[in-house]
Each structure stands twice: as structure tokens, then as C-alpha cells.
Amino acid sequence: MNVEKILETCPMGKASLAELVDEVQRFRIALSQSNISVFHHDTQGKCTWSYNCLLEKDQVLGKTDEQVMPADAAAILSALKRKALKEPGVHEAEVSIEHDNQTLWCLVKAVRTSDESGNVFGTTSVSFDITERKRWETHLKLLMREVNHRSRNQLAVLTSISSYTCANATDMKEFQEKFTTRIQCLAKTNELITKDHWSETSLEQTLEQQLAVYRQNQPGKIKFRGEEVLLKPRAVQSLGLAFGELSTNSTKYGALSVSTGCVEISWTIHNIGSNPVLKITWKETGGPEVVPPEKEGFGSLLLKQVVAQELDGTSELTFSASGVIWKASIGQNNFIHSSHQPDSDEKKPFEKENKLRQELDLTLA
Q1: Residue 48 and residue 190 share a domain
Q2: Residues 6+ apart with CB under 8 A from 37
Q3: Distance of CA 273 to the CA centre of its chain
């Protein structure tokens, strides 16, 4: 029997049934373009109707949740529907389901259904796919933990900078000058880290950020030499402070204080056993004869000890008469270099994390 015949014989009238047909069509169109599924279960918990379900109808019709769903999810859904049968109103719960080798999350809302006499004959439930929302929640929690960790780290760094700068300053003016310079240096590293969403940042970019002013004012006097290497956030912060300290001292007392001086920063990757190590050298030439400082301040401590301790490596500061030389080795957990990564789709450097960030489209202020 076609729709026209139904309309002719329907006691409720052609207009009313036509409206009903239109509503059903709109309902189907809306659900087909959404992540929403609708079900009806009888009082025994058996599915009597479903629409827009991930599974085929013959896989769910006439079956209970226990026969269709994983045990954990089935227990939650069965309890939800039993509660809906007993109590009026909307009841909801979240469940996770393994499907096609991935975890899907659903928000399920259930209400009891009854006839005109008030006799309850089952439940109608609506399932919303909230997988993306759960992924956001998970990553936001990780992000907040990262913020908390980095905040504590920043406070520790600021406390250290303040203490050592104060201990070695001869007066308040000197303290203010050195403290401000070091805070500005720290701010530059943070700008890089947050700009890249606390991801990796290239070593060359870290150098550019710290030495941009000096390279602009003295073009050609500061040279970089090395392959593409990405630094982890902790390395960006520690090395950024080190480069800031070296450049400030060089401008005041070293190669960058005279027209004949120059600075070369070079880096290479070496294998120690099977472990890659990043080796960095800051070398000054053509400047005034170097005189070692009478006492060690924050800068010397940072360059000799802090970088090595923070980055699982070694560091050496030499006050050679011909120019300051600083050498540091950085442990493999603090950088990424393509030549030391397995050559496979799953292990390509930076690809997995960057793909996830692109999917989530995280943007930090």
C-alpha cells in the first residue's frame, strides 16, 4: 500500500497523517546527519526499536544490553533503564565502548514511556557520541597539570635568579639591571614555548630569540652552525637562559663589546654508545683579553652546573685569554633529531604529537 492509499483510508485525516509523514522524514534526515542514536526497550530490557545505531538492526532488536554491549557498559545502561522505569524524569549516564579498535564515549539519556492510561511499557533512550568532548577533557587535564608543573618550575627559577643576583650585586641599581635582564631572557623563552603549544622548538629559533637584538645591531658578528634539532620545553628554558647570560656578558666584557670580535655557536649530534647526545659550543674570538671573574655569580653557576643538571649532561665554561668558550652536552631526553628516529610511519619525529594537536586544534593564549 502506498502513501496515497494510506492517506485516503486514514481516520485521522489526510492533513494530519501528511504532517506525521513529514515529521518522520525530518526526524530521519536530522538523525542521519548527527551523532545521535535513539532506542526503545521494553520493560524486560529488550530492544524493540532503534534508529541511527552503529550496529545493524538485527544485532540489537530483541536483545538486551547484556547481549549486545561489553559487560561494564551493559551494567551501566541496564541500571539506567531500570531507574527510568521506576522514576519519572530524564536519567543519564556516560559509558565507554570499544569499537573498531578505538574507545567511543556516549552520553545516554533515558525516560520511561507509557500509554494514555499511564501504563509504563518501556524506556526510550537517546545516545550522544561525546568521544571528541572526552578527548578534549583528557587533554585539558593534561594541559592543566603541565601548567601547574611549569608554574612551580618558573617560581623556582625566579627565586634562584633573585637570590643569586641579590647575593652578587654591589648595589640596588646593579641588582635591578641584572635581575630585569634575566627576567626578560626568561620571558623570551616562555614566549617560544607557549607559541609552540609547549611542543618542541628548534635550537636555532631559540638562539634567534635570545640574540636577535645583538645580531641586528652587529650584523655578521654572530654565526650559527648546525643541523636542525628540536628542543624539548625544559631544554628551551635552560638553554635560553644560558644564551641570554652569555650574550649579555659578551656585550659588556667579551667579543661583542668591540668591533673586531665575533661569536660562533655550533652544535652537533654525537653517539655515546647507542645514545645520541647534543653537543653545543659557544666560542668567542677577536675580543678583549679575557680576565676570569674574581667570584662566581648566577651566570657562572647557570653555565657550569644548572644546565648540566637540568638537561642530563655536562657543561664547561672556560675563560681562555682569546675568548670565552662554553661547551655543553645535552641528554637525549631533551631534544629530537630526525637522524636518530626509526624510519617508519608511526615513529617519524614530531609527527604523532603534531597530528594530535592539529586534530584538537589547541590554541593557547
Answers
A1: no
A2: 31, 50, 51, 52, 53, 54, 126, 127
A3: 32
